[in-house]
Every structure is written in structure tokens, then in C-alpha cells.
Sequence to fold (110 residues):
Amino acid sequence: MKQAIIGEFEEIVLLVVAAQDDQAYGLSVANIIEQRIKRSVTLSSVHTALYRLEEKGFVKSHMGEASKKRGGRKKRHFTITSAGKKALVTAREARNELWSMIPQTVIDLK
Fold:
């Protein structure tokens, strides 16, 4: 079976979903990306990535309870799946392999 590939932005979104442990939803993911890695994102780009990740089987979602704060609307929460965890490990291993190829003199920032 061919393994689905995740792009850089999908990887970031998946990492945030994993870090939020069943508390992830579109706006929370966008806020963490902007605050923690200082990357400007739109809510629609985060939602698009979340839905793509769900189609690939890397996250699953469920609707939360309606709240007065949201005008009675429900929030869609996302959770990483076992396939998503494997995808993150594979991505990390690939990045580490590439990083290990770079001579220390190339990235020496002293």
C-alpha cells in the first residue's frame, strides 16, 4: 500500500493537532501556528489542511457541544490517528536523515 505524503504545512498542522490532544479545532490550530512559530496563516488554509489530513486518514474529527459563546454553534474537534502518528514519525526520520547529510561547517553559526 502506497503511503500518503504530507506537505510541510500539513505536517505543521498535524503536529499542532497532536500537541493539543483532542482539543484541536481550526482557530486553535491557527493561533498556535501564529504564536509559536511566528507564521501568518489564514483560518481557511488551516481548515483546508485539516480536511485534507482527515481524507488521508491522519486525523479524525467529531463535533463538540454547542456553546452560547459561539451563538449556539458547535466546534469540530480534531484528533490524530495512528496513521497520522506514523506519518509524523516518517516525516521526522526523513528530515533527520537529510539534516545528518549536511557537513557541520555548512551550518556552523559561530
Observations:
- The CA atoms of residues 7 and 45 lie 13 Å apart.
- Strands lie at 59-63, 76-80.
- The chain has a mean pLDDT of 90.
